[in-house]
Amino acid sequence: xxxxxxxxxxxxxxxxxxxxxxxxxxxxxxxxxxxxxxxxxxxxxxxxxxxxxxxxxxxxxxxxxxxxxxxxxxxxxxxxxxxxxxxxxxxxxxxxxxxxxxxxxxxxxxxxxxxxxxxxxxxxxxxxxxxxxxxxxxxxxxxxxxxxxxxxxxx
Length: 155
Hints:
By secondary structure, this protein is an alpha+beta fold. 29% of the residues lie in helices and 32% in strands.
């Protein structure tokens, strides 16, 4: 798995504004079937007179690809918190097509809150190994500390 579920959930939680919470998280995946090709069907598997297979296009199996969809139900103190969360998710390198499905005001234990539902899709080429290189906030703080320590030793 290029994006483990635990890391995906951690990324969502780390991008939530203060006061926002999740009630439900769904991750559904469906396999994307490759298009059928009729090329070389007649030549496939034929041997030449020497007994060796003809050198044509080699069929290298490709790993299966999936279309993964996320649906979230959560709560927030205000609409501003919901829009901040949507903005964070829209800019996230693992996600695409982030949409607010609904947002409604409810009263829980004498407090007014916003209950919201949103959907998103996982990028087709999403890979958490590239996440650290694309997200300078998680990797640069450590590098800045190390480089600033090195520069003080050089003086």
